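Hi W.,

Here's what went into the run:
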Amino acid sequence: MKVKPVNHAKAAEAFLEDAPHLTFHDERLWDMRQKRDQQMHLLPEWQELRSRASAIKEHTLANLPEYLEQFEANAKKNGIHVHWAADGAEHNRIVGEILEKHGAKSLIKSKSMVTEECDMRAYLEPRGVVVTETDLGERIQQLDGQMPSHIVVPAVHKLVPDVARIFAKNYNTDPNDDSPQSLAESQRMAARPVILTADAGMTGGNFLVAETGTFVVCTNEGNADLSATVPNLHIATLGIERIVPRMADMGVFVRLLSRSALGSPITQYTTHFRGPQKGGEMHIVLVDNGRSARLGMEEFWTSLKCIRCGACMNTCPVYRRSGGLSYGAVYSGPIGAIIDPTFNERKYSTLPFASTMNGSCTNVCPVKINIHEQLYKWRRVLAEHHELPFVKREIMHMAGKLMGQPTLYRTAINGTEVALSSLPRFVLYNWLNPWGKHRELPHPVKQTFHSWYKKNRLKGKEESKGGKA
Amino acid sequence: MSSRDTILATLRANRPDPAAHELPPVAVLGDMDAGKARFEDALQLLGGQILLPQEGDTLASAIARRFPDAKIICSAVPDFEGTIRLEDVASPQQAAATDVLVVRSPFGISEMGSIFLSEAQLNSLNSAAHLTQHIVVILSEKNLTANMHTAYVERPEFHTAHYGVLMTGPSATADIQGVLIRGAQGVRSLSVWWE
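Here's what came out:
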């Protein structure tokens, strides 16, 4: 059976109907964007940092096989077991085998978008492994049976009463608890015994350093360091693109990451794992899952520069008003819209259209990915691959014809004045016109620019020409 | 062919031209102030505290004043007693009972207010730094480095430690309706004591 495209617009419509959630979501993310701006203005070298970060990442991607080999050699020298996974299924199998070998039945983990990509919990749980997310937002999402709705703040679409309801059901806390402090404390108290008795710990990671065989994890809650250091077995999963050549390059990225993400200068924890701790065992799984193929896409390979800060999501008016879950994908927002189609072109064919093309995502990206241009390029690719829905395709087709013929276009535009002011609402606002949902069409203009120009300027020109002659 | 070899072969076939993407030289940018005042401002912005001595104070009396209810004060430094020494803590499960852990950090970063800890400071029980309720970090002004660039360029620990954490203030979260909470799952407070 052919997979159906995600109906982003329809899912967003449901999100738009809930005013309290919508307002909070919109304002919270915009606040993160503004805090980012404040940090940016404190650093005169901000644009220089972005240029450096972009150049380092592009260089690394062009030399990715060599840097990965260098990383592997150094990590192995330090006693880390290095695994390679071509796709999500292989990743899950590798993790499952490591756990089985150790007889590990309980796994505590910190947030990792790659394990979401691989849908790892769904693989491990039927095999008898209890997986506990320890990041507060991620745990809320796990208990609620939802994907993270944002790559940095997974439960940003929820309000205090939502969390109180979920915790009451799972932690037997007061369902009317309206204090974020006491709810966060409930998570701490619930997580601590699970952490202390876990058989294995798992983390994601933000960076790999080729020179030293290190991986770097940037977090705030302390749960990642607990997950990595309390059990004797630590498994880390990272995408192969997360690499930088030298330890000294980390300065550029650490200075950009949290400022871009949350508007804080640095995450509370920036942890460098270079080898197993005393008496412990450390594994790292390097995951491809479509990345090596994406590197070959001339117009889209620079999306691999992404350091997953989420700044493009926080600034995007469509994301802020539709919510991450409406994208129906692991990665949402502008960055999601340009990388999701590489995972499944048909399923995510609607996402590059979830943009106003205002370019704000590109402007805030710390590694200078031309996100809005890639959104546009994806639209073209999807049209060429016949992945446009019927209405969009037909309207584009008609618009193309209209705009290709000046006379026809002008007749039609002149006609809109009559149409917009005289047609009944049901003709203007219907399923053929998604722009008519949640917004009014513009007031018709009395005169188009073209007809005004023809009447005034052109006439004047003719006259002055005549005068000269 | 193994997945490793398949992935590397695909990358070699697909990559953009390496000659068109040179590696820029190491960047050392920004404010080069490695001062104490800058460190303190940055630390406090991230919720960390300075443990200030009062007249005639020792570290022990300052800790007793700051943490009057603390029962288990664990010392990872030779020049402070505490109620237990970190060398005598056998496991993370035992470390979890700690109220206050006292450690010495080899360096701090003025730009961020970050302090560094590795297995060398934690007697290889790395979890102790995160299971304790509170942490007191002894730091010397002469061991401050200006910013993230200078830290990564100058400090040998990034090339030697198996576990190296930059802690900047206490653990924190804003995952519930955007409300910032200091003291999430790791330490509830982080205080710096100047020596």
